[in-house]
Design brief:
With 192 residues, the chain is mainly alpha-helical. It has two domains: 25-156, Cytochrome Bc1 Complex, Chain D, domain 2, CATH 1.10.760; 159-192. It contains eight helices and two strands; from the N terminus they run αααααββααα. It has a two-stranded antiparallel ribbon with strand order 1-2. The protein binds heme C (HEC).
């Protein structure tokens, strides 16, 4: 019986540790960072992309779709749900971070993107010019914060769910301990 309790405790611990590992992408969902990401979005992404599911108000792109079609040959997608569309958990946000930071030039000098190639399976050619300059000393910081912001747009109840998860886990640990104690007391006279 003791072993059973131990297994449950270890399982709970493992779930916790796995959740931490999954978060180890540099994506930071603290309100300050998300707010900073919104500023980055307004400055670097809004010229082309909108957020129609942004709360409380939708954010329209500055460029209309016809103009964009003329310039890029494709309409820049709405980014409201992009962070969920490109991976599970925080992976989608991490993809956005990588998309912004893995531009390179191939042997012929053509602009390519590593993350886009991995996602699409193509050669990495994308119609999106690098939104944040590669020489910008804050490139990585800005890319991480805008990715974090886009994550919260795609999954607005993240914080509530996470808090609930922690409550549920604590409840399980307390219940396990109580059952353990009750079990010991019940069998005290018999087993010894
Ligand atoms: C100058 C216009 C422009 C700006 C500014 C811009 N984008 Fe884009 N973006 C595009 C276009 C065009 C595409 C479509 C690319 C394609 O399909 O080849 C795109 C596609 C994307 C995609 C989808 C890639 C995929 O996997 O399909 C993401 C994510 C994205 N942009 C994020 C951003 C972020 C974040 C910013 C701001 C930091 C930004 N973009 C700024 C034009 C822009």
């Amino acid at each position: 019986m003791k072993e059973g309790v131990l297994v449950i405790l270890l399982f709970v611990l493992a779930v916790n540790v796995m959740a931490e590992i999954k978060d180890n992408t540099g994506i930071d969902l603290s309100p300050e960072n998300v707010e900073m990401g919104k500023v980055v979005f307004m400055n670097h992404c809004r010229p082309c992309h909108g957020l129609k599911y942004h709360k409380p108000d939708p954010i329209a792109p500055l460029m209309d779709s016809e103009q964009a079609m003329d310039v890029f040959g494709v309409v820049p997608p709405d980014l409201s749900l992009m962070a969920r569309a490109r991976g599970r958990g925080l992976e989608g946000a991490f993809y956005i971070y990588r998309l912004l930071t893995t531009y390179y030039r191939d042997g012929d000098g053509a602009l390519r993107n590593r993350a886009f190639a991995e996602w699409g399976g193509g050669d990495g050619t994308t119609a999106m010019p690098p939104p944040i300059d590669a020489d910008d000393p804050e490139l990585h910081e800005k890319a991480l914060s805008v990715a974090s912001f886009l994550y919260t747009v795609a999954d607005p109840v993240y914080h509530e769910r996470r808090t609930l998860g922690i409550y549920v886990l604590s409840y399980m640990v307390v219940l396990t301990l109580l059952l353990f104690i009750v079990n010991k007391r019940t069998w005290k006279d018999i087993s010894s």
